[in-house]
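Sample 1 of the test manifest.
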Amino acid sequence: MITVTINGKKITLEKQVTVLEAARSAGIKIPTLCHHETLEAFGGCRLCLVEIEKIPKLQTSCTIYITDGMVVHSETERVVNARKAMLEFLLINHPLDCPYCDKAGECDLQDLAAKYGPTTGRFAEGKRTHPESYDDPVIVRNMERCISCTRCVRMCDKVQGASAISMVNRTSKTFVEPFSGKRYDCEYCGNCLSVCPVGAIMSRMYKHKYRPWYIDKNINTICSYCGVGCSVTAQVKGDSLVRVVPEMGKGLNKGLLCVRGRFGYDYVNSSARLKTPLIRRNGELQQVTWSEAFKYAADRLRDIKERYGSEAIAGIAGGRCANEDIYIFQKFIRGVLGSNNIDSIANFSYAPAQRFFERIFGQGVTANSIQGISNSDGIFVVGGDPTSINPILGLQIRAAYQQGIPVITVGDTPGLKRFATCMLKPNPFTETALLVSLLSELKVKKQFLGGNSSFERLINNISALSMKEVEDICGLPTDNIASAVNMLSNMTNPSIVIGKDILQRTDGHINLLLLSAIMYLINGRVYLLSEFPNEQGLVDMGCLPDMLPGGRPIEIESFKKRYEEIVGLNISSTHGLSLSGIIENAYTGKIKAIQIIGENVLSNIPDSNYVGKAFSNLELLIVQDSLMTETAGLAHVVLPSLSWLERKGSYTNLERRMQFMGKAVEGDGLEDWRIISEISKMLSFDMGYKGLEDILSEIARVSPLHKDITYNDISGDECIWPYKGEPLRHGVSLEGMDVPDIGSLLKKPAKDRVYAVFDKELFHPDSLSRKSAAISSISPEPCSRVNRALADRLSVSEGDYLNISTDAGSIEMAVKIDEDIPENVVMIPNNFEGKGIFNIMQWKLNPVLKCPVLDGNEVKLKKAEARS
Amino acid sequence: MTIKGLAKKIFLIEILKGMALTLKMMFTHAVTRQYPEEKREPFPGFRGLHALVRKEDGTARCVGCGLCAAICPSQCIHVYTSEGVSHEKIVDRYEIEVSRCVYCAFCVEACPFRAVVLTDHFEYAAYTRDDLYMGKEKLLSNWDRFMAGKKGNEYFEKFWHPLSSDFSASGNQAIFKKINSEG
Amino acid sequence: MNKTDGLIRDIRAIKEKYQSKRAALLPALYLAQREFGWLSPEALEFVAEALDVPKASIKGTATFYAMFKNKPVGRHLIQLCTNVACMIMGAERLVDLLRDKYGIEPNGTSADGRFSLVIMECIGACDTAPAMLINEDFYDNLNKENIIDILENYK
């Protein structure tokens, strides 16, 4: 116990903290400029100076630690004079353009100058001049205003790990700049601008459009881009959105954001927004009224149900719809239309992987806190780059690495290049062999825990593959694999981060088994990377062909009965078709009608050509979306739904935390659940919901997992697994689980062939960010990445265009040279209309997981003709 | 009642006194002004109709800092700004709901650029509220009508603070750089 | 190409000596400056690659220290002291001489790119003032005659 006295107030603390932290814990305010909660102490601005008895000189409270019996005064005349002097120094070079500067009103320097500052300066020297930099599409730098607190640089170095900017030059000429001196060459997380205490680094998105005090409403909501679910605040003036900002220290992201969360919100005002319902007449989509659209959709659905039966109808839900929407959607498809053909993109690897893990380890095994990553003693990343798929989760890995925790990565993870202790980059699509060899070695080094004997038997049946054998297949030196094995076997409490890449493979199911075996052996916690904010919600709300809300299999008779009683509708007990099945059956003409909510299926799954043909075979395609997408372009009925920020609802993130998103502005359209219940009413089943509360209370009754849940719980900070509900206790049944045939893995990839690999890009992970003007200005066109050797062979250089063709089609794309990828691959993103890897892929499914596979796409490359 | 009081009553003394005063006043100057035929010059600094100061180049001096709107106790000033082509701040709309103004002139005091004034014009009654909801153009024309020329300068010199001469800084300092409000 | 290969080897050798990569930054920048003449963006990228330190932070370090040149300099760098002792002994006259003879302004470069002149504050040779450094060679007891002789050795 340490007791200190600050301004006459006795404070007793258990841990030794800085004087500043001690004061703040007692509610005593000490001004700071360079200090920031998320950053380490710097002691540069000298504004937190305090007087400490028995120490003759004033001390910086952000760097000095408390000792027992310390007596501190934070507002004596001497201290105030010192602060005044410091501010006078800072203002020597700081322009007095507050009326013009957008920061005024929320500027730390302005506030302090108003509190302590001298009204005039005694320095007659001229102020420095520095041209404002608009080289960057979304960030403006005004280095005249910079006070060299280095918060941005420390944020960039230590927290974001990008190290894109630094303090350049000395003395009064110091300023902050990226290496090029012009545009940033970084991840555009924009965390530098949120820590800037003055107006030196600011966002261009709302430049000169507001003053901080104009904002009348702050609405807390959840970012709509990925499965992490970062908290953001939407700020509204009158009825229009001013900006979306994070609140420092708040939410699971603690105020940090990635490029999509910070700049990507402007898609809500995109010109591609749908405003009125559309119906296809004479081959063209025409504007109609809502009642016409509802009637048309209901009549067509009734007609198809009567003519072809319920099995000819299917539903596809999107990962950006709120829990309430997708609950209503599955109820509608199951109960009202009588079909279990309901699925979502979550069933392409996220849901099957989760189900597989839960089968072995029990329900909820993937519900791990993101903050827990930096508390583990080792991290194993496989199947994708977490810093581009789930950037805020990726930051945890970087933070962990900087604390000295070993990080092992498998595959192409450019974002962790400087944050990995051991990077294993096997030849393309040979990860399975590598995993087998890792498992074989770990089996020797690690003891079985004896908790799950049938799974242990299964692991023992997996035949071994030595590192030597793998060396050739994967092209990895034995030493590398050995050091990874060593690290893995020394971990007692590791985190395993699994991306979808490794599962969307021909042998994805084998990878899944191998990963669970490794996880079992090293006692790891698993994190499944999730690309959509409500991917987990799709699983929990029963948007799967064989699962009801609460993660209950449809076979459980007692549960099905309970569901039918509460919902008041009878449902079929057969498994429905999965998403791939729906598309295949639409292709062959067995499925006649599909209703899609909030998903651009056509663009977001391979192969786009196949899906397009399947959809054009349909008699009825209903699309509910807030934006005009490629999928909506094929629809017979398009119903505009409200977008994020325009509606309330809840999301479940990848750690199974439920979070509430608020409504900030009004929009054109209706909530998805409202649209569905209107159609349902036309089909003579009145769902009778008055608002979200009714829906949630029904969810709380139907799903044992969400038992007794209310919006109060969801709006609180900690609505995490298993809420107040009852998780399902499975009996461990590993029947039907196959041991892979190792012999088939011993294939060396052909050196002379070039394969297309899906590049999950940070800026455009799927089709949503295209509609954001800000993100499109950062990354305006798709770019493929190739190794220098391959580029030389093709005689292309950076900026040239490459013609990439397969049997399925060809695309042209700009080239970027990346030394860190193997020679026989070309990394292709899927982020622009008609110009993505999914346009040139074949429809191939994994036999077990039933998801389209991304591997084995051999491509022919040639330099494209010069463009104007 | 006394005899004296009775006599006062009988001889109508009080009325005669009053008539005497009336008679006396008939020979002095009248103080009543025959408004609106006869108008009175307002005292300097009178707080009347609002105006936005026009610079010599014809544009408004206002940079859109919004301090007037922030200080306004009746919240009757609305400023809307945006970014111009060369990244400057543009005042798209500057609106005063004159009928809600309480004429405290805090806006004038808050303005760091001497861009908004209360003119000495007070005759602006109107038949509709719309006429009293003044936009930027109307406010600028108020300046032209009532304050342009020497009058405006005198107004600032004599009455309103802060004056730019109150801030001391050497010539090449970056104070209000790019804003160029002086005109 | 071979030249830079050697530089990479030297930088990596320095890197081995230190626990942290950043500790090797100053000596590595010195080597790069000697090789490239000045710390051009290419030189900084080169060091960043060799040390595996982010290039932005290398730029920060390189622009902080006065002895690193962030602008192109002549083939030979004259660092002449004009501090008190040297000034008394006529260093300022030497500056004028250099201006007349070679056309070099202080902090400037001669038109033919042969010499650059930097005015230093004391190089620790007050007893034998005036003194100067040419590249890394030290000369003292300068006067109008011998300084020309010395400079003529640097082509």
